[in-house]
Amino acid sequence: MVPVFGALALMYGHSVKSGQPDESWRLWALAVFITAAASDGLDGWIARRFNQISDFGKTIDPIADKALLLTGVIVLTCVDWGRDGWALPWWLAAVVILRDCFILGGIRILRSQGCLVKIQPHWIGKVCTVSQMIALGWVMLKWVDWSPVIPSLVAAITTVASGIIYYQQGRKIQLESISGKGT
Fold first, then answer.
1. pLDDT tens digits for 75-108?
2. Cβ of 85: how many Cβ atoms within 10 Å?
3. Total domains present in the chain
4. Do the beta carbons of residue 33 and residue 8 sit within 8 Å?
5. CATH number for position 46
6. Do 62 and 93 meet the contact criterion of CB atoms below 8 Å apart?
């Protein structure tokens, strides 16, 4: 659903840029985004509820989450969805992308050092995801006429905070591996 959402979001953005916003593109993009996010949540609940958790699911689920969020953040940063500036600020996209690269780079470094890296979600990561979703929804829904900067600032703060927590978790894994406790 990620490419479909991205294409619909771009189509709406281009219709806005042309001066003739086609709200059907916005509504379809929003519907696909909500469906993708909801199906991800439902899938996770079903897996936990019926003990259907797999290594494949543990790997692919965060990738799918990131693909949806990053597509939304990038598209809604690059394309206005309303009057001038009705988009996510560039600095939010930079923070989100840098944090994700930082985490992936950290995992790569730990694994290259022979550390056993078990990806354990932290509650701040969940808060980060929700705050990013709210910022995306703020732009897509256009319900409130306040600038998207406010929810973007909250999302940026939680994104940085989660990056710090994940750094600390990575450092702990590294130190335990060095001392022989993590192998």
1. 999 998 887 778 999 999 999 999 999 999 999 9
2. 10
3. 1
4. no
5. 1.20.120.1760
6. no
